[in-house]
Amino acid sequence: MAAPRNSANPTFSVFGADLAVTGNVSASADLHIDGRIEGDIACASLVQGEQSHVEGAIRAQSARLAGHVHGSIDVAELVILKSARITGDVSYDALTIEQGAEVNGKFAPRGNAAAPAASTDTASDADDGEGGAHLTLAS
Q1: Are the C-beta atoms of 109 and 91 separated by less than 8 Å?
Q2: Is the entire prediction scored with pTM above 0.85?
């Protein structure tokens, strides 16, 4: 018999490299995706493998992206690894981008649509001192 699921027993789901999903994915669990998803993803935390492809929007509290994404990204704490190839707009609270990552889209702090897009060519801190967005460039 499976253990009942509660907040004290968090779950983690893995989408293997041989898995292709067409349709939206919504989970209260943390997800690790190595396969292909054609649809929007909403989850607590997302880890994307280097060979993975996502064609759709991503919404999560935290995400670590290493593969291909074609769609908008709305994540509180986002790490974009050097192997990532992203096409789409990115909104974030805290953002780390490794040197070598490719992003074709606009960057904007979450909840601040009127703010100018963050530049990825300088190592500037966009924190306004009042809990605002934070950008980190990693080498």
Answers
A1: yes
A2: no
